[in-house]
Amino acid sequence: MITGLLVSILNINHLLPMLITQYGTFVYVGLFAVIFMETGLVIFPFLPGDSLLFLSGSIAAMASHSLNHIILIVLLSVAAIAGDSLNFEIGHHFGKYLTSPRWQRWIKPQHLKAAQTFFHTHGSIAIFLGRFMPLIRTFIPFTAGISKMHYRKFIVFNILGGIAWVNIAVLAGYFFGNIAIVKSHFELIMVAIILISLLPALFISLTRKFKGPNANA
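== DedA protein (DSG-1 protein) ==
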């Protein structure tokens, strides 16, 4: 799975422009679907949401392609918010069943545990912060649903997080994605985006490790 993820990240900057040339504005539907599935279906945490948003923004800045950054921001914010809402409902209604051993092939226990730890450590704000962390992004709303979090509280942080994540990623690509040094090292930039977004989770993990058994106190 990791190898496949890396391959998809390294090839996405060639694949997406080809799809835009071939299908035009229908690519919006595909982008919506990817963001919705990554955030809404707990079995798809490996989809490259961050890099896809950044790349879409950089393509929107090019006059030779048909993507519009405003449409991207609005459409993909809706996808992110709707995805998290669906994931919350899946966790709320089917969480106990989907965390049973028979589903561990698809829902990795270590990823779920990391999301649960992050959620219980940071409370409601984890819904917002989790948006910027691959893997955890997919499991946080699922965890909130399992924990029976009040939906009104969830939806507020869901909306704020979804809008912030999409805006930051798309606009970063729009304003910086076509700088010469970025274009010439685009594959490395995509990998760097993934690694940087994982830093908060790594920091939390190391902090808990050094605190020892009293970390949950």
